[in-house]
C-alpha cells in the first residue's frame, strides 16, 4: 500500500489533532484537492505499490504462478544431460570435483561416493535443441520452446528448511516476507473478491518421502498481514468456515460483521494498532469470498476439453493437475500471485522408482497450463516458475544399481525454468561440469533469480524496499544481486 494512503486510513482523530501547527495546512490541502486527494494514494497512475512511481519499469508480467517442487528435483535426471557419466558408473567421484564440499549428515559417513548415471532417456527437442528427459516429460517437451531453462542455479543452503526459506523469502532465516507477499505489497490487488496471493498445496501420488512445509513459507513477515498468502485446502471446503453455519443468513452475517467492525474501530481508536485495520480488511475479504470462492472452485463447470488438456487427474481435488487448473482459474479472476507446492522430490533412495510417478503428476498438467494460458491470451503476461530449493548429487546415496539409486542434496548447481511473462522462451542458460557438480559458466544465485523475477514484474530490486528496524529491507537482501538480462525476452 502507498504510505500516504496508509497514513490516511490509519490516522486516529487524536493523532490528527496532536500535530498542532500542521492541522490547518493539512485541512486546506484536502479541501483544495477535494475528491482528487486520493489520487496521491493507491489510485494514482503507477502508484499501485509502496513507492512513487511503481512499477519502476514497464512490466512484462502482471501475475505469477510459482510451481515449487518440494525436496529438490534431480537436475541430471531431468534437465542437465550428462551422457559421459555412463562411462563412470560405480566409479568414485574424484576428490578434485567434490573439492571439499560440505556434505549432509546423510552421506558424510559414506566411505565411497559412486557415480550414478541417469537411467532415463534424454532427447533433443525444440528449435534450440534442448536436451531433456523426454521419457518422463513427453508433454513438457512439446512446449520446450516456451521454456527459459537455467542450469546453473546455486545456493549456500544444503538442508531443506533453510533452502526452501531462502528460495521463498530471500533469507535462510524464517520471519521474512516471501516473494508472493513482496509482489502483493508492491503491486497490489487486481480483484476485489479474492486474495492477492493464494497458496495451493498439491498432493503427490507417491508419498514415500514427504518434507514438512508450513505457513511460514507464505508469511508476510514484517509486512502487513494482508499481504500473507491465503492457503486453499486440497479437500473439502477450500477455506475453513467459508460457508455460513446452518441458520445464519447472508444478511445476518453482514450485520455481525458490521458490529464487529465497529468494535474493532473502537479498539483501534484506543490502541492505534494498525493490525486492527488488517483484521477488519480480512473479515471484509472473507465475506466477499463467500460468494466468489464456490464459483472459483467449481471446476466441474469446465468443458471436457479442459480435462483432455490437463489430464483426467485434474478432476481429483488436491492433485497437481487440479491445482494447475485452479491456478489458471485464479489468475483469470485477477489473483496476482499463485504459489503451488508439490512434495516428495527428496530422492535419497529409490529415485528410479519414484521419479516416474512424480513426473507423471506434473507433466501433462504443466503442458496444459502453458497451452491453456496461451489460448486465453494470458501467457505473455503470466510468469510461470518451476523448480525446487536445490539439486541432487551425481553420486549415489545408499545402494547403487543400473536401475535404481538415491541422491543426496546438492546446492552447488541445479535447474529451474521460467515460461511466459516476458521470460525468453527457448533459452538454455549456464553450463555445469561433466558431473553436474560445479558451475563452469554463467552462475545464477537465488538473489539473482529474485532480482530477475522482480524485473519482469517491473520492479528494481535495489529500489523496492520496506523500512523495518531502521533498515531498508529487500527481497534480495544486502549482498550484491544482479538481473540476468539474457533471460529477458
Q: Can you give keywords for this protein?
A:
489 residues; alpha/beta; Alkaline Phosphatase, subunit A; nine-stranded mixed beta sheet; 14 helices
How would you concisely characterize the structure shown here?
This protein has 489 residues and is of the alpha/beta class. The chain has helices spanning 3-10, 13-18, 23-33, 75-78, 95-98, 138-141, 160-169, 179-187, 250-271, 274-296, 304-310, 320-332, 351-375, 446-456; strands spanning 63-69, 122-125, 130-133, 147-154, 197-202, 230-232, 337-342, 382-387, 391-396, 407-410, 414-419, 428-429, 431-432, 439-441, 444-445, 466-468, 471-473.
Task: Give an overview in words.
By secondary structure, the chain is of the alpha/beta class. It has two domains: 1-44, no CATH class; 54-238 and 297-487, Alkaline Phosphatase, subunit A (3-Layer(aba) Sandwich), CATH 3.40.720.10. The chain contains 14 helices and 17 strands. The chain has helices at residues 3-10, 13-18, 23-33, 75-78, 95-98, 138-141, 160-169, 179-187, 250-271, 274-296, 304-310, 320-332, 351-375, 446-456, and strands at 63-69, 122-125, 130-133, 147-154, 197-202, 230-232, 337-342, 382-387, 391-396, 407-410, 414-419, 428-429, 431-432, 439-441, 444-445, 466-468, 471-473. The strands form five sheets. Strands 1, 4, 5, 6, 7, 8, 11, 12 and 15 form a nine-stranded mixed beta sheet that branches. Strands 2-3 form a two-stranded antiparallel ribbon. Strands 9-10 form a two-stranded antiparallel sheet. Strand 2 (122-125) and strand 3 (130-133) form a beta hairpin. The model is unreliable at 35-49 (pLDDT under 50).
Amino acid at each position: 500500500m502507498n504510505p500516504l494512503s496508509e497514513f490516511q486510513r490509519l490516522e486516529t482523530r487524536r493523532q490528527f489533532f496532536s500535530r498542532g501547527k500542521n492541522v490547518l495546512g493539512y485541512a486546506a490541502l484536502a479541501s483544495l484537492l477535494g475528491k482528487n486527494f486520493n489520487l496521491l494514494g493507491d489510485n494514482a497512475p503507477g502508484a499501485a505499490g509502496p513507492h512513487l512511481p511503481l512499477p519502476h519499469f514497464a512490466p512484462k508480467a502482471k501475475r505469477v504462478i510459482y510451481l515449487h517442487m518440494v525436496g529438490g528435483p534431480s537436475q541430471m535426471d531431468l534437465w542437465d544431460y550428462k551422457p559421459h557419466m555412463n562411462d563412470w558408473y560405480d566409479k568414485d567421484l574424484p576428490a578434485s570435483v567434490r573439492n571439499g564440499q560440505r556434505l549432509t549428515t546423510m552421506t558424510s559417513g559414506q566411505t565411497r561416493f559412486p557415480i550414478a548415471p541417469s537411467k532415463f532417456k534424454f532427447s533433443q527437442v525444440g528449435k534450440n535443441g534442448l536436451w531433456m528427459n523426454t521419457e518422463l516429460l513427453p508433454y513438457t517437451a512439446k512446449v520446450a520452446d516456451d521454456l527459459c531453462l537455467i542450469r546453473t542455479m546455486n545456493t549456500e543452503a544444503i538442508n531443506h528448511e533453510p533452502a526452501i526459506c531462502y528460495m521463498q523469502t530471500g533469507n535462510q532465516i524464517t520471519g521474512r516476507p516471501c516473494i508472493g507477499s513482496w509482489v502483493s505489497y508492491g503491486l497490489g490487488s487486481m480483484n476485489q473478491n479474492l486474495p492477492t496471493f493464494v497458496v495451493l498445496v498439491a498432493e503427490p501420488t507417491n508419498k514415500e518421502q514427504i518434507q514438512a512445509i508450513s505457513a511460514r513459507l507464505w508469511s508476510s513477515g514484517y509486512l502487513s498481514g494482508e499481504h500473507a498468502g491465503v492457503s486453499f485446502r486440497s479437500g473439502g471446503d477450500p477455506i475453513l468456515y467459508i460457508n455460513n453455519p446452518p441458520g445464519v443468513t447472508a444478511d445476518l452475517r453482514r450485520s455481525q460483521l458490521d458490529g464487529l467492525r465497529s468494535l474493532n474501530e473502537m479498539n483501534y481508536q484506543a490502541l492505534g494498532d494498525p493490525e486492527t485495520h488488517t483484521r477488519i480488511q480480512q473479515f471484509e475479504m472473507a465475506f466477499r469470498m463467500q460468494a466468489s470462492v464456490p464459483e472459483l472452485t467449481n471446476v466441474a463447470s469446465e468443458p471436457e476439453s479442459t480435462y483432455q488438456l490437463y489430464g483426467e487427474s485434474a478432476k481429483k481435488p488436491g492433485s497437481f493437475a487440479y491445482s494447475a487448473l485452479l491456478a489458471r482459474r485464479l489468475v483469470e479472476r485477477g489473483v496476482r500471485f499463485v504459489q503451488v507446492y508439490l512434495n516428495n522430490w527428496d530422492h535419497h533412495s529409490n529415485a528410479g522408482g519414484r521419479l516416474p510417478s512424480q513426473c507423471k503428476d506434473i507433466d501433462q498438467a504443466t503442458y496444459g497450463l502453458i497451452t491453456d494460458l496461451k489460448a486465453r491470451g494470458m501467457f505473455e503476461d503470466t510468469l510461470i516458475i518451476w523448480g525446487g530449493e536445490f539439486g541432487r548429487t551425481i553420486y549415489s546415496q545408499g545402494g547403487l544399481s543400473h536401475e535404481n539409486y538415491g541422491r543426496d542434496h546438492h546446492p552447488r548447481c541445479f535447474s529451474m525454468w521460467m515460461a511466459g511473462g516476458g521470460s525468453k522462451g527457448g533459452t538454455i542458460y549456464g553450463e555445469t561440469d561433466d558431473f553436474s557438480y560445479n558451475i563452469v559458466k554463467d552462475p545464477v544465485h537465488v538473489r539473482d533469480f529474485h532480482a530477475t523475477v522482480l524485473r519482469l514484474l517491473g520492479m528494481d530490486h535495489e529500489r523496492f524496499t520496506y523500512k523495518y528496524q531502521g533498515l531498508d529491507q529487500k527481497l534480495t537482501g544486502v549482498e550484491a544481486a544482479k538481473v540476468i538480462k539474457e533471460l529477458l525476452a
